[in-house]
Design brief:
This protein is mostly helical and 205 residues long. The chain folds into 2 domains: 16-123; 149-204. The protein is 71% helix and 0% strand. The protein is built from 9 helices and no strands.
């Protein structure tokens, strides 16, 4: 009896540039590969230092978002291993969260990390701060939209988030035509700008 041998599928090994390029394209296979390669490593490190798996997962997601934002920047050039960059960003995020929750100095936490022979995480502050500023900006914008109320908040979401045409918006909100809907959108946008900057100033006081 002849037994047909089924060839074993070869595991695909991606290079760091391939992972970065795939992430920039939101390739689900590449994103899954990044999780498989690096998320367990971060979880093990955090759990060994008093963290838990849920926190580690959240931190990794936020770190991956920072990496995604950098990957879409054509000027971004990775000067170290991808694992080193992502791990350092995630640790920096966890240090900041731990400091906010426990009041422990971020410097003390960094020194603990340095005992493992790791690099100076301060070098990654610029990338992380850009991400945090964007996040704060979006949070303020969301607060302003909530304050804006109906129908303006729904109208702006329909145009900017749901990508609806002015004709579709006119039909949805019962305006006589697309031009009237466009005029209303302009008025709503001006109101949103005023609310956004007043919210921004209030939060900075």
């Amino acid at each position: 009896m002849n037994v047909k041998k089924i060839p074993l599928s070869k595991q695909v090994i991606y290079t760091d540039p391939e992972l970065i390029a795939g992430l920039a394209q939101s390739d689900s296979q590449i994103i899954g590969e990044i999780y498989k390669l690096y998320q367990p490593m971060l979880t093990k490190w955090m759990v060994s230092r008093g963290g838990n798996e849920t926190d580690a997962y959240d931190v990794f997601q936020e770190g991956l978002l920072v990496l995604y934002e950098k990957s879409t920047d054509t000027a971004f050039c990775l000067t170290c291993k991808l694992s080193t960059y992502l791990f350092a960003i995630c640790k920096r995020i966890w240090f900041k969260k731990s400091q906010a929750q426990s009041g422990v100095s971020s410097l003390d936490l960094e020194q603990e990390g340095d005992q493992d022979g790791e690099m100076d995480f301060a070098a990654y502050d610029a990338d992380l701060n850009v991400h945090l500023e964007k996040e704060a900006h979006l949070n303020k914008l969301e607060q302003s939209l909530d304050q804006l109320g109906s129908p303006c908040s729904e109208l702006l979401k329909a145009f900017y988030i749901e990508d609806k045409s002015m004709l579709e918006i006119a039909q949805q909100f019962s305006y006589t035509n697309a031009e009237n809907a466009k005029t209303q959108k302009y008025k709503c946008l001006n109101r949103l700008k005023k609310l956004f900057f007043s919210t921004k100033m209030a939060l900075n006081v």
